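All the exercises in this workshop are built on plain-text protein records. A learned vocabulary of local backbone shapes supplies the integers on the structure line. Once this layout is familiar, the rest of the handout is easier to follow. An example says more than a description, so a record of this kind follows:
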Amino acid sequence: MPNNKAKYTEIIKAEAKRLGFLSCGISKAAFLEAEAPRLEAWLNKSMNGEMHYMENHFDKRLDPTKLVEGSKSVISLLLNYYPEEKQQDNTYKLSKYAYGTDYHFIIKDKLKTLLHHIQEEIGEVDGRAFVDSAPVLDKAWAAKSGLGWIGKHSNLLTQQVGSFYFIAELIIDLELEYDSRVTDHCGTCTACIDACPTQAIVEPYVVDGSKCISYLTIELKDNLPTQFQGKMDDWMFGCDVCQDVCPWNRFSKAHAEPLFNPHPELLDMTKKDWEEITEETFRKVFKKSAVKRTKYSGLVRNIQFLKK
């Protein structure tokens, strides 16, 4: 049946391209041996901070066959979110991925379309779509599928397009042709380690999540620790510093997804506007945005902390 595998793989990759994904790579669904000790060590050092969900489903996180019954292949997909226009200088900053409509909705729809296409073209294929909302190690699978390598800042990096993209998976019960890994091209560069405002990249390829600005401004529900006062570089939701300084992101090109475009008011807001933001404005500007995750009260907390 080798011929069918090649044909099915071609059908899937062509449809992924048509749906606007940057790239598509495929791996055999199996236990992630190399990742297991790394994940365990990271959790043992409490680098997940208050993200206790990272400790759950340890076996499922490492083995997709435990997550999706009968699974044979992990299809990894990248979707560009690099914006054409950015916030003005000297304002409180949002991570670029959160400018437009919440990516979960957009990608889930594309993945459903992809699965439907597979079923129509190939036959009875079962599977599940994942957009960082389940115990799946997105970056590990994308790297295994040859879509890039994991950089020293622990994000996936690709020579052609850098790192400003979302990663998603479709795990299905169909055998396909599998891609192989690409080599690491970080070399001796330490730009991300040197630039991190809170020194969260504790060693190459290891990020202490509990010190990361993205974690502090989004995941942490308690008060922000005073040790980070004056070190947050004006980031009020997420942080892009390690990606912004990465030489590979010189090759980032603007996305072509209208739903990722920011609310018109967002790019013009000054520090004063953010400091005076009302719940009504919050709801209007972030109507379908990932920023709703932190809620109005969380964003206000972050802005107050940055003001001090």
Q: What stands out?
A: Strands lie at 23-28, 73-80, 93-94, 127-130, 149-150, 156-157, 165-172, 201-203, 206-207, 235-237.
